[in-house]
Amino acid sequence: MRDVARLRLSPFGAERTAARAKENRAFLARLVQDWDVDALRAFSDAVFLQCEVVVVTLANLDEAFQMFDSQNARGRPLYPTDLLKAFHLREIGSGRSDIAMKREVVELWESIPAAHVNALFAEYLFKIRRWAAGRPVPREGFTAADIGMFKGIRERDGTNEENHWARSFVYAKNYIDDFRSENATLARFRMMKPIEYPHQIDQPILNGETFFRMVWHYYQQGVRLGLHAFNFDELPKELSPLWGAWRSSVSAPIDEQSEPGGDRSRYAYVRGLLDALLLYYHDRFGSQERDRFAGLAARFAVLPRASKFAVKRETINNHALDGGPEVAGVNLFREIREALSAREVLDRTVPEPKLYGADRSRRNPTDAEVIQRLWGLERGLQR
């Protein structure tokens, strides 16, 4: 029997890695228990004679991150969110208090299902930022080439004094840190309400701790808004009771298509556009006239479904940027971004469309019902 070196894991943040290593060992034990001697010998020869483990130790943290980034750009790549996690952990620092902070934010990150983290960025934050800036979402979607969008201000950067655009964000972070430190006891005994950094989807990112808290902040908002990309069955237990708490019943004609009995595939892109609008509006204006905006967003989002029998990803992309025949030139995301009050957005009207341009040769009863309900509700509210 050949000697095998013991696997040594870092004492920091390796709980999940250790658990996976044990699971892999148990899987291999089950896998080989029925093999004959020849199969075991061939397998062991392949592992011990043909495989190598290379250990590279770097003294410079920046070089270590660059190696991590470049190595994972080959072969089967990591999710872009994995690269963001590594980058922002590096930004926190390495002091004693920093190590405790890293452990806290890693636990926060890993409390969110990986599929939900990826969906939060790929389906919502990335698309909202692109559309609000008047830029299309690339055909390949959110990739490692786009993670720079979610890197930004380094608090320890000496140029921040001259980077006037960054100063207000650093000041806000400093105020939050001081408030937490001075009022920790009062907050713990619920004598004072804690405050958090004033996140906004379209503002610059603060690197490190604030990035991780931003992810948790928008994940909670997404759960409360019942965003379709978050599978309810995978929600953390503490968030399950919050599911859909902020969802307006006004968007029900579209929402119902995602439920059993609905035409899920036909309305998937429409629902994704609606959810992105709801998240962006709530991020900027909170719960102000939530139902009224939900109706506006639902009518805007369904227009491609009403005008085209076949709706593709590119159809939604173009519509988000420039509207359609009924609202040509309208980018509702940009209007939300530029508005200083909710009313500026809510004054927008969406005319009732003619289904497929009144082409009688193409009819879908579901589409006709959804349109009738959405504009019928609007007419009822106007009376």
What does this entry look like structurally?
With 383 residues, this protein is mainly α. The chain is built from 16 helices and no strands. The chain has three domains: 55 residues, no CATH class; 163 residues, no CATH class; 136 residues, no CATH class. Helix 3 packs antiparallel against helix 4 and helix 6 crosses helix 11. It is globular, with a radius of gyration of 25 Å. The mean pLDDT is 87.
User: H/E element string?
Assistant: HHHHHHHHHHHHHHHH
Helix content: 55-70%
Give the DSSP E fraction (strand runs of 2 or more residues): under 5%
Terminal-residue CA separation? 85 Å
The helix/strand class is mainly alpha
Largest sheet: none
In brief:
This protein is an all-alpha fold. The chain is 56% helix and 0% strand.
Q: Which helices and strands, and how do they pair?
A:
Layout: H1 15-32, H2 37-50, H3 61-71, H4 80-92, H5 96-110, H6 114-132, H7 164-182, H8 184-188, H9 209-224, H10 252-255, H11 264-285, H12 290-307, H13 313-322, H14 332-338, H15 342-346, H16 365-382
